[in-house]
């Protein structure tokens, strides 16, 4: 779907997704512990804690937001999506006809076998 194209996670490899899932689980476990102890935590403290979690796991902490804005990605997608979508629909159409032809061939062979 077009909406999926602007979600950065969609471009991760399987191993990268597992890593992200582990880090997310670690963060949520930490946050749950904070909540259970009724510790008030500011957003600044959450950012620091998240950076530490990432660093302690041996990953680099990004110092910036990145070089491409969400709006820029949406503009790129808007430009590329129509052709991609047209080609995807054409592939799906052709595949449906291949399946249909295969089914008809199989049915004719079954019918012929009955006679």
Structure summarized in a few sentences:
With about 120 residues, the protein is mainly α.
Describe the structure.
The model has no long low-confidence stretch (mean pLDDT 88). The chain has helices at 14-36, 43-56, 70-114. It is mainly α. The radius of gyration is 25 Å and the shape is elongated. The longest helix is centred in the C-terminal third of the chain and has 45 residues, at 70-114. It folds into 2 domains: 1-66, no CATH class; 68-115.
Task: Outline the fold blueprint.
Layout: H1 14-36, H2 43-56, H3 70-114
List keywords for this structure.
2 domains; 3 helices; 115 residues
Radius of gyration over C-alpha positions, nearest whole angstrom: 25 Å
Q: SSE order in H/E notation?
A: HHH
Strand content: under 5%
Shape type: elongated
Computed structural class: mainly alpha
Number of helices: 3
The low-confidence parts are none
What's the total count of β strands? 0
Through-space gap between termini: 47 Å
Number of domains: 2
Mean pLDDT over all positions: 88
**Main sheet attributes: strand count, strand direction, barrel closure:** none
């Amino acid at each position: 779907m077009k909406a999926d194209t602007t979600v950065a996670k969609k471009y991760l490899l399987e191993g990268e997704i597992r890593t992200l899932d582990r880090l997310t689980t670690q963060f949520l476990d930490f946050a749950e512990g904070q909540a259970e102890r009724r510790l008030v935590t500011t957003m600044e403290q959450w950012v620091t804690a998240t950076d530490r979690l990432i660093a302690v796991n041996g990953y680099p902490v990004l110092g910036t937001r990145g070089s491409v804005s969400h709006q820029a990605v949406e503009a790129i997608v808007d430009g590329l999506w129509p052709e991609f979508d047209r080609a995807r629909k054409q592939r799906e159409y052709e595949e449906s006809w291949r399946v249909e032809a295969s089914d008809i061939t199989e049915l004719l062979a079954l019918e012929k076998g009955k006679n």
